[in-house]
Design brief:
The complex is a heterodimer of chains A (380) and B (398). Chain A has 380 residues and is α+β, with helices and mostly antiparallel strands. Chain A is 51% helix and 16% strand. Chain A has helices at residues 7-23, 26-33, 41-49, 68-81, 87-101, 104-115, 229-265, 277-303, 309-337, 349-361, 366-379, and strands at residues 121-124, 140-144, 147-158, 165-171, 182-188, 194-200, 206-217, 222-223, 267-268, 271-272. Chain A has a 4-stranded mixed sheet with strand order 1-4-5-8. The longest helix of chain A has 37 residues, at 229-265. With 398 residues, chain B is of the alpha+beta class. Helices cover 47% and strands 16% of the residues of chain B. Chain B has 13 helices and 10 strands. In chain B, the strands form 3 sheets. Chain B has a 4-stranded mixed sheet with strand order 1-4-5-8. Chain B has a 4-stranded antiparallel sheet with strand order 2-3-7-6, with no helix packed on it. A two-stranded antiparallel ribbon of chain B has the order 9-10. Chain B starts with 6 loop residues before the first helix and ends with a helix. Classes of the chains: A alpha+beta (380), B alpha+beta (398). The interface between A and B is large, with 48 and 49 residues.
């Protein structure tokens, strides 16, 4: 068994970490977050140039032949600097859907320019009534000649405002919560009938409410199989969960580092507060939590491409539960140990805390994944 | 000992209800119900209505202008107000500086300051914490140097809540730098309009402005504004902090918070059924409700002991610890209940009362900001770690 990185992987890791350290200082991030777009096109071009956008795609698809490990390496470093660029919705989700279910023509038209940094994506799957159930789909796609007509509303669509293509789940058959009958469509973000209400999110990213009003698409817009889109989409969401867990590990390590530094230097009652046993033990718990989060993320990274869907799902859900638990503990503890400064906008601490909080909710919270895990584990 | 309300208590409850119904402005009630931020004028309209009735300083003894209520009446009043979505009474005048003035102040100070507090005509704020002092209050460094009939104050205060709205500030200042940390501190009342005072906002994690830094640059304060003796301000500070910890349990607010979580869980769907029907979520709410009940009865025991003539003892630190943890747990559950619609950041809906349509359900848009903001409750008023030190030392003798 060898759980260490290869030389190539080490090089990628060092490269992304250097970028975050040298070019993503907290004040720089604050400026990027305040722009209309909410991310930096210069950075995105650099990601393309350095090969990060194609890192995890096969060479046949125009990528560099890496996989989940490379995605985790990149996402962890991004987490440590709270990177705002839309890697998750574009590369992991949109790119992931195309790699797993796209036709050769779709890959050529969409995936290749994405890897080159010329196209961005969004994934529209959240519906108000559905909570975390990906099969609960009320948006419809009805046959119309050779193509389809899509109608309905999707919420909290990350990166929709910058996306060239929005991947949307729609019901093509069956009842509202049936697993069969969901189809994934690639919709041009500027297509007639697509309207958006854009907003910033709590963690300074960008999302939109997207309404599809009789949006006409061709037969070639279907990604994967008609009525069989749920399995495809679930697989990509599971991979996105693991990528996001790696991001959370980066957030936690950065927070722990900041907190440790703070309690070593901040004095109260004449001594550094790190001399108080209650803070020492809490700091130890923070480290333990981050270690467990790292271990579960590693486990999930290595199992996420398992051909057995149950193994994959269990891995993703297990990691997500751990990340939710650890992220909440580390985030809350960092704020508490920083005292009043921890709840201000001025320090980065509250911003890491906010991102970890949103990560806990994204793609299903602890309760949701605990239930999913329990179902899979008890069935076996 | 009796848990049931007497006929008189029930009549009093009806009286309070009728008063709140008639006097609480509808727009203020609506903001509180929706968890929005309030403006100075929102608080003032409600507090002045209470003041006209003689109920604002409901914890004060009769001889200083309080209503002379029993412990049960206070309990009823607080619960009815919270149930009917009245804003919390800003404690700086009524619960903090007022009692310090009537306990330690001169007759002249009582005559000068107490009416403005009773009627909520004057907005007070607190000048305790300093950058670098945190829960170690006695390490404060703001200096007050005697110069004839005045003190000249230099230094800065932080975590000053709502000081940007305040007319007066009560401050702990160091009048003798050479004595031990807790000695040489004095309690000063300072007019915020005095030249040399600058108020600078601190923006919180939820994007809001509620606290400030206050800077004093050669601020001249009449010696007549000293409360108690020079160098004995720590006595006032301890007295005030004990009072502060008592109110900080926020039981009525937490009861309302639990109800709000239930309401959200009824409105949210999970696999085609209301979230409140989900067994694990129900149990979380039930667990929280039991915690609130334990806190409530602990507070009632403390109040009852006070009614029998005891002073609030160090065990009230427990109320602060559990009260803050419960407030935080409520926001965690609300956040959990709203799911994805916790994510949109909609500050205009929180602070300006804008006409903007909320993104997602209306109950969702305050969930995340409240969760972020309420992390402060285990930090302010002496952090929970400090409160535990107080209990271990003063109660358990460790």
């Amino acid at each position: 068994m060898d759980l260490s990185y290869s030389d190539e992987q080490k090089q990628i890791k060092e490269g992304v970490e250097r970028f975050v350290r040298e070019q993503y200082a907290f004040e720089t991030r604050r400026k990027i977050a305040a722009t209309d777009r909410g991310w930096s096109p210069e950075n995105w071009a650099k990601f393309a140039e350095l090969g990060w956008l194609g890192m995890s795609f096969s060479e046949d698809d125009g990528g560099f032949g890496g996989g989940a490990v490379e995605t985790s390496i990149i996402m962890e470093a991004f987490g440590s600097g709270l990177v705002l660029e839309p890697y998750l919705p574009t590369v992991v989700m949109g790119g992931g859907l195309l790699a797993a279910g796209g036709t050769a023509a779709q890959k050529e038209a969409l995936l290749a320019p994405m890897i080159a940094g010329e196209k961005q994506f969004a994934a529209a799957y959240v519906e108000k009534q559905a909570r975390y159930n990906l099969a609960d789909v009320a948006v419809t796609a009805k046959k119309s000649g050779a193509g389809w007509t899509i109608s309905g509303h999707k919420g909290v669509v990350y990166n929709a405002a910058s996306a060239d293509t929005i991947f949307v789940t729609a019901r093509t058959a069956g009842g509202q919560r049936d697993e069969k009958g969901v189809t994934v469509f690639a919709v041009d973000a500027k297509a007639k009938g697509v309207s958006r209400r854009d907003y910033p999110t709590q963690d300074a990213l960008r999302a939109s409410e997207v309404t599809f009003a009789d949006v006409a698409v061709g037969a070639d817009a279907v990604v994967g199989e008609v009525d069989g889109g749920l399995a495809l989409f679930e697989g990509v969401v599971d991979r996105a969960i693991v990528a996001m867990c790696a991001e959370a590990v980066g957030c936690m390590d950065a927070l722990n580092k900041a907190t440790l530094e703070y309690i070593k230097t901040r004095k109260q009652f004449g001594v550094p507060i790190g001399k108080f046993q209650v803070l020492q033990h809490r700091m130890v718990d923070c480290f333990t939590n981050a270690q467990e989060a790292r271990s579960m993320t590693l486990m999930a990274t290595l199992k996420i491409d398992d051909p057995d869907a149950a193994t994959r799902k269990k891995a993703a859900s297990g990691a997500k539960v751990q990340i939710g638990k650890s992220g909440r503990f580390v985030g809350q503890s960092a704020v508490q140990m920083h005292g009043g400064m921890g709840v201000t906008d001025e320090l980065s601490v509250s911003h890491y805390f906010k991102r970890l909080t949103m990560i806990e909710t994204m793609f299903g919270n602890q309760q949701h994944h605990l239930s999913r895990y329990a179902g899979l584990s008890m069935a076996a | 000992m009796d848990l049931a309300f007497t006929k008189e208590d029930l009549a009093f409850r009806d009286e309070v209800r009728a008063f709140v119904e008639a006097e609480l402005p509808a727009d203020v009630r609506d903001k509180v119900a929706k968890g929005k931020h309030l403006e100075r004028d929102d608080y003032m309209r409600w507090q002045q209505a209470l003041g006209r009735r003689g109920w604002l300083v409901y914890t004060w003894p009769k001889k200083h202008g309080g209503p002379g209520w029993t412990v049960t009446q206070r309990y009823i009043f607080e619960n009815v107000c919270a149930d009917m979505n009245a804003p919390g009474i800003i404690p700086f005048g009524s619960k903090m500086v007022g009692p310090v003035i009537y306990t330690f102040g001169t007759d002249e100070q009582k005559a000068t300051y107490l009416p403005g507090i009773r009627e909520s005509k004057v907005w007070w704020c607190q000048g305790y914490s300093e950058p670098g002092s945190g829960s170690d209050l006695a390490s404060l460094r703001t200096r007050a140097v005697r110069d004839g009939d005045h003190y000249v104050v230099n230094g800065s205060k932080t975590w000053n809540t709502m000081g940007h709205w305040a007319d007066w500030i009560f401050c702990l200042v160091r009048t003798d730098p050479d004595s031990k940390p807790q000695e040489g501190i004095s309690f000063l009342l300072i007019d915020m309009k005095t030249p040399g005072i600058t108020v600078k906002p601190i923006i919180m994690a939820d994007g809001g402005h509620e606290v400030n830094e206050v800077f004093f640059d050669d601020v001249r304060v009449p010696v007549a504004n000293l409360v108690g003796k020079e160098g004995e301000g720590w006595t006032c500070a301890k007295f005030l902090l004990a009072n502060e910890r008592l109110g900080i349990a926020a039981v009525p607010q937490s009861k309302r918070g639990v109800d709000a979580v239930k309401k959200i869980a009824r409105a949210e769907n999970d696999n085609g059924r209301p979230l409140i029907e989900d067994a694990s979520f129900r149990e979380k709410i039930a667990d929280l409700e039991i915690q609130v009940t334990a806190l409530e009865y602990t507070e009632l025991r403390a109040l009852s002991a006070m009614a029998a003539g005891g002073a609030p003892g160090p065990e009230v630190s427990f109320l602060k610890i559990r009260g803050s943890e419960i407030q935080q747990r409520i926001t965690e559950l609300a956040l959990e209940a709203v799911g994805y619609y916790a994510m949109p950041y909609q500050p205009a809906l929180l602070w300006h009362g804008a006409n903007e349509e909320p993104i997602g359900p209306e109950h969702a848009h305050t969930a995340a900001p409240r969760y972020f903001n309420v992390r402060k409750t285990s930090i302010y008023g002496g952090s929970n770690e400090i409160q535990k030190n107080v209990i271990s030392k003063m109660v358990l003798g460790l």
